[in-house]
Amino acid sequence: MSRIIANGPRTPQDSRWRPARFFGRRSGKRLHEGQQAVYDDTLPDLEITLDEDVLDPATLFPAADKLSLEIGYGGGEHLALEASRHPETGYIGSEVFTGGIGKIVQTISEQQAQEYQALHRRRL
Predict the structure, then answer these.
(1) pLDDT digits (tens, 9 = 90+) for 7-18
(2) Band of the pLDDT at 88, cuts 50, 70, 90?
(3) pLDDT value at residue 15
(4) Helix 77-85 × helix 98-123 angle, to 10°
(5) What's the rounded Cα separation, in Å, for the pair 10 and 19?
(6) Which residues, other chains included, contact 73 with Cβ-Cβ below 8 Å and sequence gap of 6+?
(7) Is the pLDDT of residue 93 over 50?
(8) Among candidates 78, 75, 73, 71, which has minimal Cα distance to 99?
(9) Where is pLDDT greater, at 4 or 75?
(10) Which ranges in the chain belong to alpha helices (H)?
(11) CB–CB of 88/64 below 8 Å?
(12) First to last CA, the chain
């Protein structure tokens, strides 16, 4: 195996740097048409955009008793299940792959539709 040898620091910001080995995927799978549509319509309402200011998670969930952060939630099955079991907790999920983000956005969209239908039926 050959390695790049460079003088000076070898950091990801340095164009000469490459990891010696990488295990796992470097990019996610493409979303199918239905997932892409839900992703495009629903994600902007759920997405947390970070800017130069410090984010105070309590402002995202003012009524929450506690907050939970799940890093690398995959398809979001566990995150969605826990959020449905503990509505008093504010959940933040972080995922880099669009497939996982697409799955949880689709799950949230379906849950919201079911909640709306249940609410609508109660009002009839």
Answers:
(1) 445 555 556 666
(2) very high
(3) 60
(4) 30
(5) 10
(6) 79, 93, 94, 95, 100, 104
(7) yes
(8) 75
(9) 75
(10) 33-46, 57-60, 77-85, 98-123
(11) yes
(12) 69
Question: In residues, how long is the chain?
Answer: 124
Write the pLDDT tens digit of every residue in 16-58.
666 666 566 666 678 888 889 988 998 888 888 877 778 888 8
- Rg of the chain's alpha carbons, rounded to an integer? 20
Could you give the maximum distance between any two Cα atoms of the chain, in Å? 73
Q: How far apart are CA 110 and CA 58, in angstroms?
A: 26
Q: Encoding tokens for residue 110?
A: 């379906």
SS3 46: helix
- Read off the tokens for 93: 């999920």
| b (16+ CB within 10 A) / e for 23-55 | eeeeeeeebeeebeebbeebbeeeeeeeeeeee
CA distance 25 to 28: 7
